[in-house]
């Protein structure tokens, strides 16, 4: 929306979108589950929205997530708008990695890398392995849209359950699978594919590391 590009800050953009949709902050709160006081702080530029907020706002304000991400200060490596189509089934695995590559925010990617490092340590424990084995199938079967993303994770899980992996690959794959199962909530998994953005970024990070290990 061209007129939105001239808006100076995210709070003003949010107020414009609420006016356009004829929604009050209270109504957006009820629809999105975001606390009304949080929406108020964001609208008055007293709090920066996190990606979870932006996801929910994109859905309930019917606006492209990329526009909200950019308006709130997230940087992108290119301007591929199609990658944010919520109807995408990611039929090509390259589309998944392309989606993950769009995010060029060091803090966001850094947080995911930190969580993966924690998962790498945890998956070496009996408790971590049990958590993974007990919950992987249930978690992946709960995803409404099955496709290359879920196929890739299922294959990684199958590989993890064999004895044919090197220690390095075992830990890399295990960290990804445990990250997926635990839902460390860099972004909650409430909608696919957008709600799995952090899982996609994590998968991208691990895939690159696995390629470098060949």
Automatic annotation (TrEMBL):
One of its GO terms (cellular component) is endomembrane system. The keyword Nucleus does not apply. This is DNA-binding helix-turn-helix protein. The lineage of its organism: Bacteria, Bacillati, Bacillota, Clostridia, Peptostreptococcales. It is found in: Endomembrane system. GO terms for molecular function: DNA binding. Keywords: DNA-binding, Membrane, Transmembrane, Transmembrane helix. Its main location: membrane. Pfam families: DUF1232 (PF06803), HTH_3 (PF01381). InterPro entries: Cro/C1-type_HTH (IPR001387), DUF1232 (IPR010652), Lambda_DNA-bd_dom_sf (IPR010982). Residues 14-68 form the HTH cro/C1-type domain. It is a multi-pass membrane protein.
């Amino acid at each position: 929306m061209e007129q939105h590009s001239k808006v100076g800050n995210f709070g003003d953009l949010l107020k414009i979108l609420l006016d356009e949709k004829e929604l009050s902050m209270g109504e957006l709160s009820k629809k999105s589950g975001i606390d009304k006081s949080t929406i108020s702080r964001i609208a008055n530029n007293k709090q920066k929205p996190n990606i979870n907020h932006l996801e929910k706002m994109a859905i309930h304000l019917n606006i492209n997530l990329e526009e909200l991400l950019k308006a709130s200060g997230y940087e992108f490596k290119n301007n591929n708008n199609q990658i944010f189509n919520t109807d995408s089934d990611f039929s090509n695995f390259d589309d998944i990695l392309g989606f993950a590559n769009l995010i060029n925010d060091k803090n966001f990617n850094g947080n995911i890398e930190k969580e993966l490092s924690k998962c790498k340590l945890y998956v070496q424990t009996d408790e971590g392995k049990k958590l993974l084995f007990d919950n992987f199938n249930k978690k992946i079967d709960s995803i409404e849209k099955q496709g290359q993303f879920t196929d890739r994770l299922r294959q990684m899980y199958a590989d993890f359950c064999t004895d044919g992996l090197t220690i390095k690959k075992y830990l890399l794959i295990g960290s990804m699978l445990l990250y997926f199962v635990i839902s460390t909530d860099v972004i909650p998994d409430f909608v696919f594919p957008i709600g799995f953005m952090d899982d996609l970024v994590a998968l991208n990070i691990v895939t690159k590391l696995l390629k470098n290990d060949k």
